[in-house]
Amino acid sequence: MRVASRRESADEGFSATVAAITSAFGDTTRRQIYLYARGEEGVTATEVAESFDLHPNVARHHLDKLVAGGYLEAYVDHGGTAVGRPSKRYRSDAGGAPALVPAPRDDLLLALLARLLTRIDPCEAELIAEEVGCDYGRSLAAQMAPGDAPRSVRSAMASVADALTAHGFAAHAGDPASPHAIVRDHCPFGDAAIDHPVLCAADRGLVEGLLKGLCGDGVPVQLSSRARGDEICATVVG
To answer: Do 44 and 56 touch, CB atoms closer than 8 A?
Structure first.
């Protein structure tokens, strides 16, 4: 049974990897933009738009999609001498190869975490998990949109789903049954979340932190989780 469980987990992890790569590179133009950005020290949406004959908003969408997946990083260039608002630039992370596979689980750390969770008050453990997730989500949002004005929740949901997918959740934003939800088809915590559903609070905090970083405070979220007996794993926004 345990061998079958590990095989299923590996298959789900592979599916999550495929989802992450497809989300980032499923568009031919986006792949070309990524290669172009890797060959430069830093590019702006305007430069990409001019190079690929795109509207600047379309170029920015492709770049933000690559940032959300962890393939590019965004930063505000304060070094220019031009008058006006500093430009937002995009670059490859140290010019290295893209992280095409979400970070692997560390079973030793998960085992240690599971043991610790049995010795902590469940309410306190859930609070800690949500705080850690929220702090991490804010840090991701700061990398995805440095210096940007707050987005609308609707426009941010796709970016949040891309960021979750890059971290192994195989997420997508909304569907006809739940248009205001971010649905996840894979959990990188694996069996640990089933044995300790309190870990789902970290997931909720992660989405909350991302939305706070991208949209500002005051965006309520509610979590459903298979580990807690719900039909799907999803975060309902608003």
So the answer is: no
Judged by DSSP in three states, 76 sits in strand
The pair of structure tokens assigned to 51 is 């190079």
CA–CA gap between residue 233 and residue 210 (Å, rounded)? 17
Q: How far apart are CA 157 and CA 136, in angstroms?
A: 17
pTM: 0.71
Q: Which residue has the tokens 């430009």?
A: 87
Query: What are the structural domains, with CATH classification, of the chain?
Result: 2-92 (1.10.10.10), 107-237 (3.30.1380)
Q: What's at 39, amino acid-wise? A: G
pLDDT in tens, the chain (238 residues): 444 454 555 555 545 555 556 566 767 888 888 888 888 888 999 999 999 999 998 998 888 888 887 788 888 877 654 555 678 899 886 544 444 444 555 678 777 887 888 888 989 999 999 999 999 999 989 888 887 888 888 888 888 988 888 888 888 887 756 778 898 888 888 778 888 888 889 989 999 999 999 998 888 888 889 888 888 888 888 7
